[in-house]
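Support request from a user on the community tier.

User writes: "When I paste my structure tokens into the form, the page sometimes reloads and wipes my input. The last time it worked, I copied everything first. Here is what I submitted, just in case something in the input itself triggers the reload:"
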């Protein structure tokens, strides 16, 4: 067996293991940065505000006015906390 065949065989076995093992899949997503499934923090805040009863036009206005201030003031806040703060400020 060539070295390249061994490497590809190992990669395929690893990929199969990750697909079949949910804990391994979660860890791989966590370490590769794919855990948020492609959404940035601002989109998550927008989705949370809409979920909590605000309409889309109002949410766009809220984010336009308050998002940058809140993110700078509370840099470690989760998207749900940012949304709660924006609702209070607006």
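"...and here is what came back when it finally went through:"
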């Amino acid at each position: 067996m060539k070295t390249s065949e061994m490497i590809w065989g190992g990669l395929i076995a690893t990929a199969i293991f990750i697909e079949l093992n949910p804990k391994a899949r979660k860890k791989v997503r966590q370490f590769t940065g794919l855990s948020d499934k492609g959404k940035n923090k601002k989109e998550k805040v927008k989705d949370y505000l809409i979920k909590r009863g605000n309409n889309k036009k109002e949410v766009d206005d809220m984010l336009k006015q308050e998002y940058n201030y809140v993110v700078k003031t509370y840099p470690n806040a989760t998207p749900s906390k940012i949304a709660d703060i924006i609702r209070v400020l607006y």
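Agent notes: The reload is a front-end session timeout and is unrelated to the input. The longest helix spans residues 3-20. The mean pLDDT is 78. Escalated to web team.
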